[in-house]
Design brief:
Elements lengths: L20 E2 L3 E8 L4 E2 L11 E2 L13 E2 L6 E2 L1 E2 L1 E2 L3 E4 L9 E5 L15 E8 L4 E9 L28 E7 L2 E6 L4 E6 L4 E9 L2 E3 L25 E6 L6 E5 L14 E8 L4 E10 L6 E7 L4 E7 L26 E11 L5 E8 L3 E2 L17 E2 L6 E6 L4 E6 L17 E7 L1 H5 L2
Parallel strand pairs: 1-25
Antiparallel strand pairs: 2-30, 3-8, 4-7, 5-6, 9-10, 10-11, 11-12, 13-14, 14-15, 15-16, 16-17, 18-19, 19-20, 20-21, 22-23, 23-24, 24-25, 26-27, 28-29, 29-30
Length: 439
């Protein structure tokens, strides 16, 4: 199996590779899929899957319409939300559509048992600003591959739900779909029509990495011993080298060491062999930009250079940050660090950290032609555009000068574009020649 890196050469680069240059970005297109976009479940799914979002209010199921205070979204929903794009595959569909992963549902194992897992083919028309979903592929486990009990255990098709896995990243190699999960964390494999073929655990230095949501764990579980991947810090990024020889799985945030201390400001990147369907033992690290707490997506642009989304946990424009004691008409935790960074995994320092080459600020995008299709609450300067979402989770290079970036709108919880308004799914096209040319 061909590998990306030559280990003997890795120690030649200095620690200064952690720095990077900030370069400009210009809006070249903006498309929107409305927040309230739903599809019916598959015809042979259990009847209960026609209603989703029943468990988003806490411990008691929502049986009558309930509005969320933050943005007025009434739930439960009729149908399955077509929302939460959480990753673009490097390889496009035969018709040129993006292969886009839809997130696990409503954010946690506890509230997503009525959300079916899927990926889709999405077409983006920047001329009209519309997004169209050409097909939705539902994940299922009819062959009983999953090594634990699932929500729809007793059914024939065994459709998977957001209480079974938290899927966050996707790649397609030939007739196999590879998906990064956060609950295990695992690498899942499936056919092009969504039938699960494998659930692959992750190992680091010969030891399996687990999160508190791993199905084998029970309370009490000891941090650093029983689990080292904090909740919601599994495989947020899964990047495929252009030759399809290697997958690199990037954890969303810092893991714990064996003593339970966090590897602050660092994320791990682990090599997975799609041929043998096992982790190879190769691992690298990336230093997060100051103020970032997580990554959102990860895709190669050539044999060694890759785009990474880095972000904090805020949403909304900083000009509307809540003053002390203020609770309405403001953003309690506004967006401040939303970046796309170009890294080079062929340049690695003596500690195993990859080089950071250049970066753009998604909170400061030029829009000289007025291409923005949605208003933004806050003091956004004229001729500028912002992407102020808590979870920005899709990035891919379109050509030698443009990238596409998309958000996970977290229906029904997020409202970062406008106060009190549920976020839509947005995809933006950015002109970033300097970013993509950085070496």
């Amino acid at each position: 199996m061909k590998t990306v890196l030559l280990p003997a050469a890795l120690l030649m680069f200095p620690a200064a590779l952690a720095a990077q240059e900030m370069v400009p970005a210009t809006l070249a297109g903006h498309a929107v899929l409305p927040a309230f976009s739903f599809t019916p479940p598959p015809a042979d799914a259990p009847a209960e899957t026609w209603i989703s979002g029943r468990f988003t209010a806490g411990t008691a199921p929502v049986r009558t319409p309930l509005s969320l205070d933050q943005n007025g979204v009434a739930r439960p929903f009729m149908g399955q939300p077509l929302q939460g794009f959480s990753g673009f595959a490097l390889a496009r569909a035969d018709d040129g559509a993006l292969v886009a992963l839809i997130d696990n549902g409503f954010g946690s194992r506890a509230n997503s048992s009525d959300a079916l897992l899927s990926f889709t083919r999405a077409t983006v028309d920047f001329e009209t600003g519309a997004m169209r979903v050409a097909a939705r592929v539902w994940l299922s486990d009819p062959d009983h591959v999953v090594p634990f009990r699932i929500v729809h255990e007793a059914t024939d098709t065994r459709y998977l739900t957001g209480a079974d896995f938290d899927i966050e990243s996707i790649q397609v190699i030939g007739d196999t779909v590879f998906i990064g999960d956060e609950f295990g964390p695992y690498i899942l494999t499936a056919t092009l029509d969504g039938v699960l073929t494998g659930v692959h655990p992750v190992t680091l230095d010969g030891v399996e990495l687990r999160s508190p949501d791993h199905p084998a764990l029970r309370v009490p579980a000891e941090a650093g011993t029983d689990w080292r991947v904090p909740r919601s810090r599994g495989f947020e990024g899964l990047a495929m080298t252009p030759d399809g020889a290697t997958l690199w799985a990037m954890l969303e945030g810092a893991i714990l060491d064996a003593e339970g201390a966090e590897e602050t400001g660092t994320v791990r990147i682990l090599a997975f062999d799609p041929g043998t369907r096992a982790f190879t033992g190769e691992s690298l690290r990336m230093r997060l930009t100051e103020g970032a707490s997580a990554i959102g997506d990860f895709n190669f642009i050539d044999a060694t250079r890759a785009l990474v989304i880095e972000r904090d946990g805020g949403e909304g424009h900083p000009s509307l940050a809540c003053a002390e004691g203020q609770t309405e008409g403001c953003f309690r935790n506004p967006a401040r660090v939303k970046r796309v960074t170009l890294i080079d995994m062929g340049q690695v320092d003596a500690e195993g950290f990859v080089a950071r080459l250049a970066q753009i600020d998604l909170m400061d995008i030029a829009d000289p032609d007025g291409l923005a299709r949605m208003p933004t609450d806050g003091a956004v300067p004229e001729g500028r555009f912002v992407f102020p979402f808590v979870t920005i989770e899709s990035v891919i290079a379109e050509d030698g000068e443009h990238i596409l970036v998309g958000n996970d709108n977290n229906l029904p919880f997020s409202a970062g574009r406008q106060l009190g308004v549920a976020d839509a799914n947005e995809v933006i096209r950015l002109h970033v020649p300097e970013l993509l040319a950085a070496r």
